[in-house]
Design goal:
By secondary structure, the protein is of the alpha/beta class. The chain contains seven helices and five strands.
């Protein structure tokens, strides 16, 4: 196998490994404290705190990735202490899925202390992007730009490299 054929594969492997590396994750004792919906909403009212509602399902692979990567990040855990965090199983709570217009999983809905929706995130977000959403929901920052995870911009050009390589190879063969 030539170096030209191995190079695009090596670049893709390196980029995918770099995306897996990230900020440190927390141990179990430093985890987010999740509540069910009713308990969490009552806590929010009594403590006058904002609410973070995580809508997920047991079959959602992106939900599991968000649990592993985002909700275990020490910075996210620290900022989550400023919210009452509620976890909702979308399959079990169709009433809440309808109330908050959840169209896909994972979906995170942020409510202000009075219960009004202030922000909604549909889809997976890595820790860096999710922290921006949390700050926006708390009124600390401007609205984050919607878009792909932080790894995606690195991967797009990497898919173009093999395409260019193989199209050039095809031209040379003719």
């Amino acid at each position: 196998m030539s170096v030209k054929a191995v190079l695009p594969i090596a670049i893709l492997l390196f980029a995918s490994m770099a995306c897996q590396l990230g900020p440190a994750t927390a141990s179990a004792e430093g985890a987010i404290q999740w509540h069910d919906y009713e308990e969490g909403m009552n806590l929010s009212l009594s403590q006058n705190k904002s609410v973070l509602i995580d809508f997920s399902t047991s079959w959602c692979s992106w939900c599991k990735k968000m649990d592993k990567d985002t909700y275990n990040d020490t910075r996210v855990i620290e900022k989550a202490q400023r919210f009452v965090c509620i976890r909702v199983d979308g399959d079990a709570r169709g009433d809440l899925v309808a109330r908050y217009s959840v169209d896909g999983y994972p979906t995170t809905v942020f409510l202000g202390p009075g219960g009004a929706q202030v922000h909604k995130v549909v889809g997976y977000k890595g820790p860096d992007d999710f922290l921006k959403d949390m700050s926006y929901a708390l009124g600390e920052a401007g609205k984050p730009a919607p878009g792909p995870s932080s790894c995606l911009p690195w991967l797009i050009p990497l898919f173009a490299v093999p395409a260019v390589f193989f199209s050039a190879r095809r031209r040379n063969a003719q």
